Amino acid sequence: MKAILLEKTGGVENFLIKDVKKPATKENEVLISVKAIGVNPVDFKARANEDLLNSLTGEQRPAIIGWDVSGTIVAIGNNIIKFKIGDNVFGMINFPGSGNAYAEFVAAPEDHLVKIPKNISFEEAAATTLAAVTALQALKPRVKKSDRVLIHAGSGGVGHFAIQIAKSLGAYVITTSSAKNKDFVLSLGADEHIDYGSQKFEEILTDIDFVLDMFNGDILLNSIKITKNGGVIISLPTADFSDEVLKAAKERNVDVFFTVVQSNGDDMNTLKNMLESGTLKPHISKTFAFEKMGDAHLQLESGRTVGKVIVTMK
Description:
Order of helices and strands: EEEHHEEEEHHEHEHEHEHEHEHEHE
Shape: globular
CATH topology of the largest domain: Quinone Oxidoreductase, Chain A, domain 1
Largest sheet: 7 strands, mixed
Number of helices: 11
Helix content: 25-40%
Number of domains: 2
CATH architecture of the largest domain: Alpha-Beta Complex
Structural class: alpha/beta
CATH superfamily of the largest domain: Medium-chain alcohol dehydrogenases, catalytic domain
Number of strands: 15
Radius of gyration: 20 Å
């Protein structure tokens, strides 16, 4: 089978497409003929950063990265009970860990996968994986009906799912984005839009119950200022909070957390049901062929992607 290998970290020129042995399936795994792959910021960060790549996949090289996958089951392990050969499935597989999704065939644990609803394409399914699970795991345990929720970067991969999930939980949703993406985020259900180019959210908002932060730094610090006593902020970029952030959070009695998304079949089933009912709709900004994986990474690194980038296997 063809796979995209990394023998060393760095730029996209380090991607190598080679023929490798098709993976064997363990007793609790299925073998998927890959149809579409979701690409996320963690993908290009792992490609470029040795420490991150090692933490996710180990030090063995070459490495195959990628965690978002949709496709058709072509073989099953002895202990598989949920699926059969021919089922179309999707999921975020083995994260953290070596997902191995940049390949024609992927072996994946049964409990990381769910069936693709009939109204959803392979591309839409692959899009609704890591970014959507990240949003769900951040929001669902912490957001309740009528909460005032601020979601930064609402037009991005995680953000556009987070708006929809927060609305499904009954929250009042405020989001930031560029002016050109105002209509897009409002179409997702956001109640208010703040143009980060011409407005300062910290001068507009007060009494926020929950913030989903994508940036850290000054944006995180200013988010603390407008979060109410006892409120919660989930910051996704890093657990390395400055002393200033920690001091401000303590003074205002705001809980600031960093979380790492985990592969979870129950959460995937929640997303599947939302896709099936139309409560959740992924937005695919651009689609690339498997051989153009480098271009998909460069698109994401540009910071101008609305929604998700998908790579398809023809």
